[in-house]
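Q: Please design a sequence for this.
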């Protein structure tokens, strides 16, 4: 049987990346065990629900990574460097958003309702994510002549792993810097969805930020593992939208209906499990049922 041809700009699934994903999930679970010992079972359940939510929503970032790297023709060996810097910037920005969001909720309790509405709107956008992402990366091919080029000089030529290269008497940004800029700005858009969603589960700053950090740390390796399987997970976006609907409704209705963190973990896990199973089922039927002869 011939080997499956990898997509341009997207590396094949390697055992090393699977090991890295397993490592970061193990670290996240170990931290959850520490939370259970130090803060109690309720805090641990909140942490696991927040982590599972962040990990599932980070798949939306992966769709954008695939588009950006493909459009800008970033080689696989350069993608890891871009993602490393992109994750670092995302952690700093999300820290600001998380602590600002918690401060706003503590000062203005009514802000939960607009936050909940924002999450429900994010669920609606998730259903039309493919079209939205094509607009967000504005044909990353054209980005060299749009807003980035208004700030810095941009070159279409790669220079190894460098974000900048010398062009005569001036420095110019390479396509790696363009990819990084697009990824960082789109993460800001995604953070406006995911941070309020986690605040619907808990407002404990340690739990909210640690769940974000550990989900983001594993995102780089998760990209290389999941990107090859995105075409087969056709129903995944619907599952992520359902998770956002649940968290948005939970935030809006928290004054009247209390849903325990343990139940939240069960619901999020069930929705994602069913979604992945539904996505893979048609493929299994096609590959196991023999074709009828004419």
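A: Design:
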């Amino acid at each position: 049987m011939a080997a499956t041809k990898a997509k341009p700009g997207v590396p094949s699934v390697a055992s090393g990346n699977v090991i890295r994903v397993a490592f970061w999930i193990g670290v996240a679970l170990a931290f959850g065990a520490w939370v259970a010992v130090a803060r109690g079972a309720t805090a641990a359940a909140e942490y696991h629900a927040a982590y599972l939510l962040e990990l599932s929503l980070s798949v939306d970032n992966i769709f954008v990574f695939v588009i950006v790297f493909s459009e800008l023709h970033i080689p696989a060996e350069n993608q890891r460097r871009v993602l490393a810097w992109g994750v670092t910037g995302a952690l700093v920005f999300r820290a600001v958003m998380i602590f600002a969001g918690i401060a706003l909720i503590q000062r203005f309790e009514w802000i939960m309702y607009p936050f909940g509405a924002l999450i429900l709107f994010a669920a609606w956008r998730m259903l039309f994510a493919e079209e939205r992402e094509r607009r967000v990366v504005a044909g990353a091919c054209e980005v060299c002549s749009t807003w980035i080029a208004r700030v810095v000089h941009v070159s279409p030529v790669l220079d190894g792993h460098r974000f900048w290269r010398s062009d005569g008497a001036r420095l110019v940004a390479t396509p790696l810097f363009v990819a990084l800029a697009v990824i960082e700005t789109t993460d800001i858009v995604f953070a406006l969805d995911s941070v309020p969603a986690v605040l619907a589960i808990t407002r404990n700053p340690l739990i909210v930020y640690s769940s974000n950090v550990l989900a983001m740390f594993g995102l780089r390796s998760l990209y290389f593992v999941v990107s090859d399987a995105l075409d087969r997970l056709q129903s995944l976006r619907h599952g992520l939208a359902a998770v956002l609907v649940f968290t948005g409704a939970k935030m809006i209705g928290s004054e009247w209906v209390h849903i325990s963190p343990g139940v939240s973990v069960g619901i999020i896990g069930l929705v994602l499990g069913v979604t992945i199973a539904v996505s893979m089922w048609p493929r299994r039927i096609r590959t196991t049922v023999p074709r009828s002869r004419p």
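Q: Thanks. Anything notable?
A: The chain is about 70% helix and 5% strand. The longest strand covers residues 164-167.
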